[in-house]
Automatic annotation (TrEMBL):
Protein's organism: Microthlaspi erraticum
Protein name: Uncharacterized protein
CDD domains per UniProt: M20_AcylaseI_like (cd05646)
Cofactor(s) named in the record: Zn(2+)
Keywords assigned by UniProt, alphabetized: Metal-binding, Signal, Zinc
Lineage per the UniProt record: Eukaryota, Viridiplantae, Streptophyta, Embryophyta, Tracheophyta
Zinc listed as a keyword: yes
Amino acid sequence: MASPLLWTLFLISIIFFLKSHAEQEDTPITRFQQYLRFRTDHPNPNYTAAVSFLINQAQSINLSTRTIEFVPGKPVLLLTWLGSNPKLPSLLFNSHLDSVPAEADKWIHPPFSAHRTDDGRIYARGAQDDKCIGVQYLESIKNLKSRGFSPLRTVHISYVPEEEIGGFDGMEKFAVSSEFAELNVGFVVDEGQASPGDEYRVFYGDRTPWELVIRAEGIPGHGAKLYDDGAMENLMKSVELISRFRETQFDFVKAGKAANSEVISVNPVYLKAGTASNTGFVMNMQPSEAEAGYDLRLPPMADPYALKKRIAEEWAPSIRNMTYTIKEKGKLRDHLGRVIMTSTDDSNPWWSIFKKAVEATGGKLAKPEILLSSTDARYIRSLGIQVLGFSPMINTPVLVHDHNEFLKDTVFMKGIEVYESVISALCSFDGVYDQVI
Ligand SMILES: *[C@@H]1O[C@H](CO)[C@@H](O)[C@H](O)[C@H]1NC(C)=O
Ligand SMILES: *[C@@H]1O[C@H](CO)[C@@H](O)[C@H](O)[C@H]1NC(C)=O
Ligand SMILES: *[C@@H]1O[C@H](CO)[C@@H](O)[C@H](O)[C@H]1NC(C)=O
Ligand SMILES: [Zn+2]
């Protein structure tokens, strides 16, 4: 009779055999796991292997591939499925290759192992933001092809670098390139966000960040003296006015009249003043300069001209010896002066088709939203092209940029089905949409 130890070893080796066998399987889930393991996290994303992987996947389903490097080492990968009428405006499905960093010691599974738990959770940085959609686009096209479906309009898929650090060497350059113009893009689907409930979230615009710095100058003086026109005094007046404006905006949110992303947020991020001493600050002196920095976020419908007037006349008026600088990190109006957002009513055929396609899979869309922050979609919208932000993840906690980011295998698989419906419906649209670009 064999010893219990030998039996145990025998069983363990069988378990290992089965386990490694399962990992060698080639399924949509294992392909998703493979893509998640590439180290495209900041601060040193390496795109080489991830791009090769995607090219292999694309070639296996006969999509044409093209890599464009606007900045060396930062590739934009473009896949194309040619439509039967390539003259019609095309569709573009975009995702970014990079991800934010992960603090491995704060995760229950290593963030680049793409470990799949018994209940189907796949843990990895990028699982939700946004490697899921990058693989789902390919898998859905693979399924459509295997069913013999062929598109009327050409379908492009793009994978861009550097989204998480502003897209300056990625989508910003791609969007204004001749290569992009040649695609003749009519409608774009880009990343969205998970939904904890059972309705898919969809985004039609995002907020534009402004970095505001206000500076005050004033008469310096003894700390003991009461006098007018000091720099601190001048700055504090502005700080109070800005705080009041902030409250007014926040009141709309608190009263349930607007979502957080629908108001102008203005948050103080630094204060700088005082005369330095060896031990800290000189306490008996009122300084001659003072400065404050603010993070502003403007929803698409905000009036940038009115806000600039308010800043010039109330928040940093020259009459109070104040100056200011605004760094606008994006545009609020396109070159024709239009608000940069995508219309989500039935006057927009793209929207109607998209909505019906999601509903055809048994899904329901939540009320369209403005994104609290911003994504690469802004570079495309500012060209006058419509973009919806959509990542099909329902009943999923929002874990973008958080520890223990995960996506359930069943949610990932359902997403492929949703894209099959969305891609096939959009690329079959034979109507005309007179869009002025
Ligand atoms: C990026 O990864 C590839 C292989 O995947 C490797 O050959 C290359 O040296 C890496 N680049 C850098 C800068 O580390
Ligand atoms: C790709 O093209 C080859 C050659 O035309 C064909 O045999 C193969 O079935 C195609 N594969 C797919 C997934 O379309
Ligand atoms: C602005 O600066 C001028 C010149 O230094 C000074 O006379 C005036 O009182 C200052 N006004 C305020 C509001 O600080
Ligand atoms: Zn993202």
